[in-house]
Design brief:
By secondary structure, the protein is of the alpha+beta class. The chain is built from nine helices and 19 strands. The protein has a seven-stranded mixed beta sheet with strand order 3-4-5-6-7-8-9, with helices on one face. Strands 10-11-12-13-14 form a five-stranded mixed beta sheet, with no helix packed on it. Helix 6 (about 235-250) links the parallel strand 13 and strand 14. Bound molecules: zinc ion. Zinc ion (ZN) binds next to helix 2.
Length: about 350
Amino acid sequence: MTSSSTPTARAISPDSGTHWSAEGAWRVADGIHRIPLPLPMDGLKAVNVYVVESGDGLTLIDGGWAIPVARELLERCLREVGYGFGDISRFLVTHVHRDHYTMASVLGAEHGAHVSLGAGEKPALDLLNDPDLEESPFLAVLRTAGAQDIAEEWNVGDGERPDLDLGLWRYPDTWLDGDHDIDLGTRSVRAVHTPGHTPGHFVFAETGAGMLFAGDHVLPTITPSIGFTVPPADQPLGDFMASLAKVRALPDLQLLPAHGPVAPSTHARVDELLEHHEERLAASLAALATGPRTARQVAAELPWTRHEHQFETLDGFSRGMAAMETKAHLDLLVARGQATATVSEDPDGVRFTAVPS
Ligand SMILES: [Zn+2]
């Protein structure tokens, strides 16, 4: 959700020849189609679901967000290429976020399709299925980031937890654990664990076709949010950067992202993402020069989005995401020995201090 060196004009996707979010089942390669599905908030515009013909039925990479308009569109686009929901034999879901997982959860149960999800997402599903939780588990993460005010903003409403809808958050049939090949009948994909964006994130490499189904791990025009996970990971940015290096060690593949256009090179985009985070780490460290700061205070001193917006001009949701992502950068500075963290019961959150160099 932060800056990018890729011009917006590249949001034209080569498979469709039009804006990547345009409706349709766009042929990416033999037996592989991209179907962008709408999201209820327009920040990300759409989520790409990839349909892979695979001998024993269809494999869908990600499912989309389970809202009626997306479900109808998925059904219509599948019909365009000669299929229906009953032809789906399997969902490989890159991560637990609702724009990827919930439609797989619903359609998997209705049509008997097998659903796979990374084992690292189990703690998040446990929380989402916990009826005794009194508030969204993200609020505690915001408070440790020093964003008590934003937590209050996120907590408006009647106390109902809109995420508590058990049909959307069923447990998968298979927990993906460790890197391994998955046989799809007439082809196979390599499941590669890429923690960072979420702890259980997986990408799927189809090296025969030269393609990487990248989920939210490598996005072509924006940077994946980091730190927007519950329960919070210790080093989400450190995990993310190590997982980028892991994808860099695979062959250079065509990038099939969950959000944005198909792009020619996973390696080129990984290099840009690594550079972006090194720049943000340096900027976060520089913001500590004048004294101890919470993540929220550092976030307020950094530019946000590719348009370099000021923090205070962002909407409440984006400010919360920005505070959590900044905390991930500060936590990595601590792990690298460049800063220290003072954790207290202080409602103002964790304070970070630069280590003199
Ligand atoms: Zn996503």
